[in-house]
Amino acid sequence: MKHPMRAVLTLIVLAALAGPARAAAPDPVDWAEAFKGKDGCFILYDLKADKLVVAHGDKRCAEQVFACSTFKIPVALMAFDRGLLKSEDSPIKWDHFDRKSPLWNQDQTPKTWLKYSTVWVTQRLVQKLGAAKLQAYLVDFKYGNQDMSGGLTKAWLSSTLKISPEEQLDFLKRFWRGELKVSPQAVDLVKKSLDSEQAPGGAVLQGKTGSGFLDGKTRPGGREVGWYVGHLTRADGEYLVVTNFSDSAKPADKKPGGERAKAITELVLGKLGLY
Fold it and tell me: What are phi and psi of 66, to 5 degrees?
């Protein structure tokens, strides 16, 4: 499903945010600064009103790029649905293989797996699911290009599994509305497991980062891909947000792409007065 973004190059503000009809106000977001040195997309969707609020980066929003660790959301849904995970605090035992990360070199739970993007947990779960069941879920979810030919344990890691920001939004809408072919319990447990933060004003943002490298690279040093896909809860509404970018050159910022995408998300939401 394509979104009505073809002519949208900067910002759409709904009446709910903009107030009564009047002369066009200045765009509150400096997009050139927000995505400085990047080819980026930002989408904000009002889940309750079922309307697009903001769309920036028309071409990028339609482009399929590496799913990276945003893939952990559909994998979590599959794992809970199949009973591989029982609760948001289910123990996931570390195999004591040194992966050069203190956060990964320990027992995990669904909460820590999603928070720390622990790759070995994803790899273990997809192997337990098996290629056939995994592929069937991806088709049911309409998840991007559904291409796992890059390998069951690495296709999402800057390899063959790709998804566009628009497709991420479609997937998130079906997930948050309980429209996917998984149990209601699986949906609820994934929502409980996602990392969340509360702004001083009370808004709660929860979601998943994703980091990768262009041209199939799997180690630091080159241009990066960054994702943040999430859900914003406020007293006056409920929103979905998708941020994606790729660097136009090797970034000066040493933070992973996903962390930078989340920072962009929080910056833009703040400029819009939502976070």
Answer: -55, 135
Return the number of other C-beta atoms located less than 10 Å from residue 96's C-beta: 7
Q: Which of 61, 55, 78, 52 is nearest to 8 (CA)?
A: 55
Question: How many domains does one find in the chain?
Answer: 1
Residue 21 lies in a domain: no
Task: Let me know: does 224 contact 257? Beta carbons within 8 Å.
Answer: yes
Enter the pTM of the model.
0.90
Residue 220 pLDDT level (bands cut at 50, 70, 90): low
- Domain containing residue 170: CATH number: 3.40.710.10
What are the tokens at 103?
């956060």
Per-state percent for the chain, helix, strand, coil, to nearest 5:
35, 20, 45
Domain membership flag for residue 14:
no
Q: Which domain covers residue 210, as residue numbers?
A: 26-271
Residue 207 clears pLDDT 80, i.e. is over it:
yes
Instruction: Name the residues annotated as catalytic.
Output: 69
